[in-house]
Every structure is written in C-alpha cells, then in structure tokens.
Design goal:
The protein is mostly helical and 639 residues long. The chain has helices at residues 21-30, 33-36, 72-84, 124-128, 135-145, 149-158, 166-189, 195-212, 217-234, 236-256, 261-275, 283-300, 307-315, 322-346, 348-367, 376-386, 396-413, 416-432, 437-456, 460-476, 478-482, 485-500, 510-524, 530-541, 545-559, 564-573, 580-596, 608-611, 616-631, and strands spanning 2-7, 12-18, 39-43, 51-55, 67-70, 95-100, 104-105, 120-122. The protein has 29 helices and 8 strands. Helix 15 (348-367) runs antiparallel to helix 16. The protein is globular.
Amino acid sequence: MYIVQVKQETETWIVAICQIEEDAAAYLTTMPAEIQAAAFQFKVPIEYYPFIIIQNTEIPHHSDTYFEYCNFETLQTRIDTARKNRIDSEEHIYFKYYYISEPYVQMVTEENFMKYLKHTSVTNHTLDQPYPISLFHEEIKKNVSNYDIDQLNQLFDLTKTRFTSELEKEDLALNGYDSLFWDMNYDHACGKLTEAGMSCLLPMVDNIENLLGEKKWQHRSFAMHILLEQACKENPGAALNILQNTVHSFEQYLIAQPEEKIEIHRLLALAYEWMMQTDQDTAFLFWQQAVSEIEKAIHYDPEKASWSSLFNLIYTPYPEDTKITTAQIEIQQAFNKKALDYENTFGAVISYTIALAYQHLKEQLEWKKIDNIFPEATALRWAEKAIAYNPATISRLDLHECAEFFNRIGSQTKRIEFLVKTISLHERIIKGTNDYAMEVYYIASIWKQIAAIHLTNKERTLADEAIIQAQSIYKKHLEEIKTNRSAYLHYAEFLEYCYTYEGLIVKPSLLELKNIATEIERQSEGFLSYPYVLLMRIALFENNEQQAIVEGTKSLILHELCADSTFNELYETFTDTQFSEFKKFLLETKSFMEEVSTNYYYNPEIKWKQLQTMSSAELLAYWDKRKEEIRNRPKENME
C-alpha cells in the first residue's frame, strides 16, 4: 500500500491510501504547493484491503509511530493490552483505529479531513465489549454506517456456515440489525425513512430474533406501528389487518416490558387515531378505543401519562361525526371532577401536568388554525393552581420547560405572579449549575417584562424597581455573562435600553456603551451587525451624524445585503428623525438594496481585520466603489 501523509507543526494526517504507486503520486501532484511541501509518499508492507490504521493519540503527532499499519490480530492485541492497563476514566481515549476496506483520497484541501473518516475511538466502553475485533465485526459496523441492509443480510447468511458462534451472532444482532433498526426508527420520526426502508423493518426484526433465539416485541411493535401509519395513509384497505398484528405485538411487548406501559398505551392510542381516517363508519369506535388507551395510562400514572394526547382527542373537532362530538362534550364535562381527584391525591404536580398539556393543546390548535375551541378559562385555572408546583428534584431540561411554560402564560396574560414564578425557576437553575449565563439573561428579560406591565398600569416606581432588579442580577453575575457571547450581546442591548429608559435608575454612560459595543465587535470579528447599530446610536446621542454613517458603512461593507432587515428597521425607526444626513444615508441604503436584491449573492471582498486598518474616508470611498461593483456584476455571475 502507498500512503500520502501530511506532517505540519501542529498535526499530522493521512490524505491518500492507494494500492497503486502511480495513483498516490498523481494525487500528490494535485495538492496546493504550500501543503505539498509538507506532504510525502511512502510504502507500507500491506498488499491487500482490508487492513487497520492505528492512530496513537497519546504520543506526539510527529513521531514515526503516530500511525501504525497492521492486521486485525495486532489490533486485538493492542485492545487486550489496554484492558490489562485500564485507566479509571470513561472519557480517556487509548487510541483510535481506522478500518480501511477500499482506497481513500481526501478532497484536495489544506485542512485535515481525517476526522471525517470513519474510525473508532477506543475507550473503556470499547474495552467492555465482548466482541472480537475482526473482519466480521468491522464489516458489521461499516454496513450499519452505510445503511447497507443487503450486506448485513449477506453476513446473516454467513452465520449459518462460517461465523457460527453465539458471540458472533449476538454481534450481528445488536451492533448490526438492532443499531440500524433504531437509526431507521429515528429517521421515520424525522420524516426521512423511505417506503423501501419501511419494508425492511420486519425482516430485520425477524433476523434479530433468529440470531438471538428470542422474540423482540419492542422492535416488532415499533415496526408494525410504522407500517400501520403508512397503510392508513397509502393503503387503507390493508390497515385493519396490520392493526390487529400491531395490537398483538404491543400486548406482548407490555407483557415482556411492563415498565413501558405508559408509552405502549400512548402508541396504541395513536394507532387507533390513525385508523379513524380509514373508515368513516368505524371512526367513532376507533376514537373510543384511542381515548380508552390514554385513560389507562393516566389511571396507571397520572404524573407521567400523556394528558396532551387525551386533550387532543377530546377537543379536536370532528364535525362530520356527531357521535364523536357528543362524546367529546360529555368527557370534557366529566373531566374536571376526575382531574380534581387526581390533584387531591398527587398535589400540584398534577396541576402543572394538566396546565402544560393545555398549553400544548393551544399550540396544536393554533398550528392547525382551529379557532374558538380552546378552553381559555379552564386552562388558566389550572395554570393558577400550577404556581404551587415546586418539585424537590427535577432535571435542568424539565426545569427549563417549566420556566418556559410560566413565562409564556405570564406574557400572554400580563400577570406578574406567573413571571415571578418563572424567575424563581431560573434561579434554581443558577444554583444547580456552573453554566448559567443565559439564565441571568432570562431573569433580566423577565424583570423588563414586569417593568413594562407596571408602566402600562402607570406604576412608575414599581417599574423602576423591576429594572433595578434586572441591573442587579446582571451586576452580580457579570463575569459569567462575559464568558458567553450571546449573553454578553444581550447585556449590551440591556445597557442601551437602560440608557434611554425614562425612570429613576442608575444609567450607563456613553463611554460604557461604546466600550461594550467595541468589545462585542472584537469578539465576533465583525460577524454581528448589532455592535455597529449600537455605535450608530451612540454617535447620534452625541449628535455626530457623520460618525453614525461611518459605523453603518462598516456593517454594510461586512454584511452587505445580509443586513437588509437591520437597515430597513433603522429606516422605519428614523423616519421622523432630526438627523437629515443620517436619514438620507438610510434611504439611499434601502433604495440600493432594493435595486440589487434580485439574484444578489453574498461575496464580500473586505474582512473585519482589514476593515480595522481603514480610515473613515477610506471606508466611505470603498463602499461607494463596492456598490457600483455589485450593480454592474455580469449576469452570468448572478445566476
């Protein structure tokens, strides 16, 4: 084998693996001169594919043994040695290895693309796997990565003649079919699984069961569920038979894994809901079965069951079926009594769970553009009860969802108690983590919302107190804010808000605003338009129209028409301004952007670092020149 390798001061990588010497030499000549100077070609004593490349990540990259070229036996020996010298860290990487089964040439570039080449990082998880590192094992992994079911099936056939051990069969079942099955299940959830892919699911389950010698009801249930959904859409006549097999699979799944009861009932309810589409005459019966499945889940565990699924069934209108409409009204009327019983038993957690489900229902109805259905008063009552929800233990993700819920209700109703509840939840997150910069921003933003409510109610003193609270939270955690560019940007926006706020608060100076705008510009290296907008406003605060135009020109040079929304907004904001020259600049910018917007493409010539070396006169002159270049671009370059 012939290898082309690049060795630079900071890293070493392989760019080509060829069986023929002339192919490697030809590739070497295509490389840019600068990178070619750091590249070299050599031969390794391996004649045929496949083979293994070991990357010894724990030694210097410029070492001659940084990459080793070997067979499976050598790799297995290395892994066995790592097992004997195990390091007590789940993050530790002993080495990486690459399974090379065909020629490889990297796209001609100066970058290291080896990280995109399929490889295995050997960690303690790898050491814990019982499967031998062999051609069979690596082919399984490769075929899963390539979604190559045909090749997996060929390996399956070989388990009858060549790879016959129980461990090899388990390897193919779990690392092959099982791994790919769940990848395909995820693809289906994302709407990316093709009909051909769907047709492979049940045969894959059959092979898993054959290899392991046991039924896999979870896999079979999910496969049948996917096929049922497809049949309800594409082949309603076949749906009933598939439904029967789906229900049977889920019943066996429930027996095998009773801990999955809630999810099983939810998926069965969804299956019956799909069946409503297949036959108008039986829609009511399937609706009843769907409701029954969700009620079973709620009765079993009202805290974790899907109340959203129940609400979707009992509130979504079915005007063509009066039986469903009548039954929906009856269940809605009986619902509050049942829910109150659950609340009395389980407390505020049920109030929150129900309130959150109502919010999900509202979003679903809005998405479907269904009006005059959502029970606003009922939902609000449960939201009010949910304020008492304060779990002793909760994940950060769930805590953030809870905060989002109360913030949404508070914003919609303009009620301060919901917003104060939101603040308390974000404060819990701050106490429980070291990464909380965005939580500080969320709290400050909510205090701004509270101030706005007080201003609407003509409660100026309370509004001032709310803004002071926002200033206080930022001041307390300013060092953390500075570590997060997004949070720091929001802090700059808040300082600008405080500067123009008409109330009794301590306001930042223009110098402070300038400093933070300049710092954010430096951090983003001109990527963001906001620092220039802030510097424009600061210049206008100082009655310096020319400087405001210069700051705007900087953004235009860097962002061109990508900043069109920013400059359109500025134009609307300054329609009635006293700054005539600045207004003229905005009008000319708006007109220019409209003139060249058709088929415009972003390809600026000047980068931020060069921008820093240019004078105001040079900036203005360059932008005038650049505008003409954009106006006069050849048509063939604009297609």
